[in-house]
Amino acid sequence: MESFDVFDTIIGRLCFKGHNLFQIIEDKLKIPNFKRLRMACEKDTYDKTYHEISKYLPDFEKIKKLELELEYELSFPINKYLNKIKPGDILVSDMYLSEEQIRKIICKHKMIDNPLYVHVNHKNSGSFWRRSEIVSNILKHYGDNYHSDILSANRYGVKTEFIDNVELNTPEEIIESFSPTLSYLIRACRLTTQNDNIFNNCAYTVMLPIVIVLSMYIHDYCKNNDIHEIIFLSRDGYWFNLIFPILFPEMNSRYEYFSRLMSTNREEARKFISMLNTDNKKLVVDLNGSGTTFNHNIMPFIKKTELLIIFGHTNHVNLYPNTHSLYIDSCGKHEILKFISIEDFLGAPHGSIDHIGGKMDPEYDITLFKEYMIVVDVFKKYFNVFKKNNIDIEIPSFTPDIYILLVDQLLSNIKYIKNINEFNKKIKHLHSHEHDYTRFPIKYYSQIGQDQYFIENIIKYKCNGVFLDIGGYDGITGSNTYALEKYFNWKGIIVECLPEFAEKCRKCREAIVCGKAIYKNTGDLIDITIPDGDEIFGGKEQLSCIKEFMRPNYIEVFKKSFRKKRTIQVETININDLLDLNNIHEIDYLSIDIEGYELEALKTLDFTKNIIKYITIEFGFDENYKKEIYDFLTSKNYNFIRTNSFDDEYMLIGAKF
């Protein structure tokens, strides 16, 4: 068996150190000097500690309860080691919390029932390692404390692995210099997601800290210049469009397609200019360049808009009217950027835009950036935990020269990243797409392009969304959600009531799979009719439907498939119960295709409790049914977007992606 320390080995704290948690309590409850008192009263158990505190603070029970709640709320998994734990392994902790309290925290992240040995100082003193009936079976012990986990264990012949990366690394220390809480969140992202992939390393050492610092600069620039709307240009603005709204949700920002080729087309340029020429004063943000294309083709025709190029090629950038740059000639200062450009490090998971606004194939494999997506998803989750618990996150303002200094420090660290040349071999940003190049096309899976339209035109390749796919079939054939999961790290629920196909979904998809039929009631048994006649493209079983809701025109269209049929009984679940069960109440994309029961399912949905931003719904060439769907969804505050053969698409008014 193997043994594992608990805190900072398999579980971490978002606030980094225990004494930071005490400071949070002091701030939340406004108890002067509580942090100092809590540390001075430290005993070998939690209850003894608070017995001591009770001598000074009579209302100690409230504080004691809050500390336990925060230990739970602010815990996060260190998956690299948590996922190593196998049946038969043991956990060993010197923590002052009880076994029950520690186990509750662990099981928040992974349900395990391995033996847990808890006693203050029993590792450091050697008392645990002297227990030969246990220790003689340990093949290796993992821990982050060099004295109690390594030296003490080694004295008793236990082989060990020292976990030496739990302190702040260099980029995190740079962030800590102005915002300790942000640095702790980046550390938590690193420890949660860490693996040997170079893109994972670059996500939390390059992309995340640099985009955070530059987002702060962009926010300051807007505040100082009375700008109320920010437009991040594709493709360089992709990660800014994800991270900036996390930090500054009150600011109006969005992502828009733009390229050199697109701007040379008069009609495409006209549409782009029209989008900019509204009442709000806007800031258009580009990551890297000279500003020549935008200033020649766009700027002369727009008003109330400024262009910010963060990394300007030359000082000429600032000579254009309403054009500014923060950082000039980064390559001259940082040798690494001559080989790997800042555009490579911040590359987007999609191709450039051609002269007619079409989406070109990427010049690299976009799945490489799933590591970035995962880190951004985790950062957003942890940031929101701090917000939910009213924990202050320091986001100060600086002068431009301080931002330049911070960016310089972060860029200087890149050359120390292990195997950084591997990144350069896999990502190479093309500045011109006018000639042929090696292409890595995105594969779409929908029957009639539903996924491609949604990804390219509605979400603009945005990652980390949530889907609900009702009528998932085998999970891949004709799937409207597989490309979202495969390329863009979307998560969600697939509902497929045919047992054989639900099992196929479980084998090929990462999403939650529900093997029941969506119905008005939960727990009923209903008849599902399965066609057993002629085959159709993709498989006739995808035509299966609830027997009592089989529409005559539907049977007529597919009469060859239904000339033979069979019936099975399946258990049902109400859509609200499904969402409650999985604690999902905000859905970015709903695909619903259940052969005639779509509208009945939506009529049972609680639209006040559940937010669904975009819906693809099958009406199956039945114009009366199409009209019923239209009337219902428009009454629920949805706009009709388009008809796509046998599907209609709707978007919630005011929805943002």
TrEMBL record:
InterPro entries: EGF_Rcpt_Signaling_Reg, FkbM_mtfrase, SAM-dependent_MTases_sf. GO terms for cellular component: endoplasmic reticulum membrane; Golgi apparatus; late endosome membrane; plasma membrane. Gene3D superfamilies: Vaccinia Virus protein VP39. GO terms for biological process: endoplasmic reticulum to Golgi vesicle-mediated transport; endosomal transport. Residues 469-639 form the Methyltransferase FkbM domain. PANTHER family: PROTEIN STAR. This is Unannotated protein. It comes from freshwater metagenome.
